[in-house]
Write a structure and sequence with these properties.
The structure is a homodimer. The first copy, chain A, is an alpha+beta fold and about 250 residues long. Chain A is about 25% helix and about 25% strand. Strand 5 of chain A pairs antiparallel with strand 5 of chain B, so a sheet runs across the interface. Chains A, B: This is Thioesterase superfamily member 5.
Chain lengths: ~250, ~250
């Protein structure tokens, strides 16, 4: 497994990252060939934070379809093994206590950073979404309601806003299902436009894990499953983050 | 050409859009098989608007690399055939006087809509970008500086924010180069992360036009061209919009 991982690393080094770039995706290390336990990933990610706002909770802008499906999945968290993922302002809030590779550390990060999909503060204007994750099935469902600040064609969501929502759901799924940390590829085939303020349901699943890569797929569709908005596939690079002992 | 267009339409109807969906991408019409002249598309798109804010102008948040390259391309607009594209709050400002197909009209659009890539109002916080377009070469260059509200990994731009920026540059290029109006496919291969606040240069070109589809490619790289951030390809559906006589 380690040797296969190293071969994959060499391929990435050859095809992917140009020499000399200061922000190159990290090469595989031996450490990254061992996966974290899913339980530890999930429990760290979902830990109770009383001081941080969780943006994945219902608000007055959510349409009835979104509220109904939210409560349906909330019921499934009680018996069917689904987990409602919290959503904080920044990814750094989700992975506190873990260390990034040196090549990815930033010298100064004093600015007020927001994860892209929580960049618009006013409720209902931008991204409204909540992700439910099923650890043993390695599946996620994202309920996504695009607001008027995500416009593309008049009255409809921008294709890029949907691609970004898919990427974000992929990335959370890839991380929790197996240390998937970086998007290597994202391919989205658009089928129908999403009307602003309506609900799109993103059904996401890990298809396979091979050569330290996770292969993930998505079907985004309407609540009644009669309209497919997009189909997508993505590949994520696994990288296990180490505990940051300097924080203790 | 028309017959080939209709065959493509049938394929799209078969593979793409499910029956019954209320917001299905429009089928091809005979009208859409005739292209608009590029001159008329460009002149309508770029018309002087004294009452609308143009977001594609330099501001205090632009980094030196972005400012330098902006002025370099500005020089090229005087002699080399490049055009600086204005960027208004909504796509509807760019295509005023044109009529959308009935299936894409919205009954109520009173909300304060923003094109997704101009969704964050504070300068430097979100998307800073300007697109230059070369009509005869069918190429575009987008200067893109991601701000701290586009974060993905700590200190770096979210992959979805880059995918959306590529989609937006593709869509403007596809529209002006030949009535390309809807993204059918967007495939992005990520190579390196973009550090927040630094410049990514998106080099975009139309590869071919076939069966009423435009095939477009992109290489996103650093100013010194030493680091490739992403390579992408996209397919756009051509659809010629008719003049909206009701507005006169």
């Amino acid at each position: 497994m380690i040797r296969r991982g190293l071969r994959a690393a060499a391929r990435l080094g050859h095809h992917g990252a140009l020499p000399g770039g200061p922000y190159i995706l990290p090469r595989f290390s031996l450490a990254s060939a061992f996966g974290s336990s899913m339980d530890s990933l999930v429990s760290r990610f979902c830990q109770e934070k009383t001081d941080l706002k969780n943006y994945a909770l219902p608000n007055a802008s959510w349409c009835p379809d979104m509220l109904n499906l939210y409560h349906e999945f909330l019921e499934k968290t009680k018996a069917d093994g689904w987990i409602r993922l919290p959503s904080f302002k920044s990814n750094r809030n989700h992975i506190q206590g873990l260390k990034f590779p040196l090549v990815l550390t930033v010298s100064s990060d004093k600015s007020d950073c927001h994860i892209f999909t929580r960049c618009i503060k006013t409720e209902g204007q931008g991204y409204e979404y909540v992700i439910f994750f099923h650890p043993s099935k390695k599946k996620s469902v994202c309920l996504f309601q695009p607001g008027p600040y995500l416009e593309g064609p008049r009255g409809f969501a921008h294709g890029g806003s949907l691609a970004a929502m898919i990427d974000e759901t992929f990335s959370k799924t890839a991380y929790l299902a197996g240390d998937g940390l970086f998007t290597l590829n994202l391919n989205t085939r658009f089928k129908n436009l999403i009307r602003m303020g309506s609900l799109a349901v993103l059904n996401v699943g890990v298809e396979k894990v091979e050569d330290q890569k996770l292969y993930i797929s998505c079907v985004a569709q309407s609540t009644d499953q009669q309209t497919v908005y997009a189909k997508a596939s993505g590949t994520f690079l696994q990288l296990q983050l180490e505990e940051d002992s300097s924080q203790y």
